[in-house]
């Protein structure tokens, strides 16, 4: 299956080509800036080793993207989504979690008005 052609990195003045929005170097920089200046909390405190263990167990128990599965597609899950965000009182309980592929997780996050909504 052919891939889409690479496009210029969206970071001002960067000559690199990428498949995503930013090249690898600037993706790390943008994530660091986002975590440092735009998030109202420290992600390493909220998503520490306990969360990684919960996430790994949940992914092992739910290997397919739940959103794609509802639409009749079989896609490997890569992310664990909080249905009710932690910032709005959600918890790490299994009934508040959802296994998703990266595209579904990004879409749901954007629709809920979080990180990518204003980009």
What does this structure look like?
A hairpin with an 8-residue loop joins strand 1 (7-8) and strand 2 (17-18). The chain has helices spanning 24-38, 43-46, 49-61, 66-70, 102-111; strands at 7-8, 17-18, 79-82, 97-100. The relative contact order is 0.10. It is of the alpha+beta class and 119 residues long. The two termini are 29 Å apart. It has 2 domains: 8-38, no CATH class; 49-119, DNA Binding (I), subunit A, CATH 1.10.30. The model has no long low-confidence stretch (mean pLDDT 84). It is 39% helix and 10% strand. It has 5 helices and 4 strands; from the N terminus they run ββααααββα.
What is the arithmetic mean of pLDDT?
A: 84
Between the first and last Cα atoms, what is the distance in angstroms?
29 Å
- The radius of gyration computed from the alpha-carbon positions, rounded to a whole number of angstroms, is 16 Å
Q: In percent, how helical is the residue content?
A: 25-40%
Number of domains: 2
Provide a concise account of the structure shown.
With 119 residues, the protein is of the alpha+beta class.
Layout of helices and strands:
Layout: E1 7-8, E2 17-18, H1 24-38, H2 43-46, H3 49-61, H4 66-70, E3 79-82, E4 97-100, H5 102-111
Antiparallel strand pairs: 1-2, 3-4
List keywords for this structure.
119 residues, alpha+beta, DNA Binding (I), subunit A, 2 domains, two-stranded antiparallel ribbon, 4 strands, globular
């Amino acid at each position: 299956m052919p891939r889409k052609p690479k496009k210029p990195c969206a970071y001002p003045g960067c000559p690199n080509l990428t498949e995503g929005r930013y090249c690898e170097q600037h993706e790390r920089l943008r994530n660091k800036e986002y975590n440092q200046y735009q998030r109202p909390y420290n992600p390493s405190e909220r998503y520490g080793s306990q969360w990684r263990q919960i996430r790994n167990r949940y992914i092992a128990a739910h290997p397919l993207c739940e959103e794609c599965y509802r639409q009749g597609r079989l896609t490997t899950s890569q992310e664990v989504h909080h249905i009710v965000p932690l910032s709005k009182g959600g918890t790490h309980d299994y009934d508040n979690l959802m296994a998703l592929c990266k595209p579904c997780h990004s879409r749901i996050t954007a629709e809920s008005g979080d990180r990518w909504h204003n980009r």
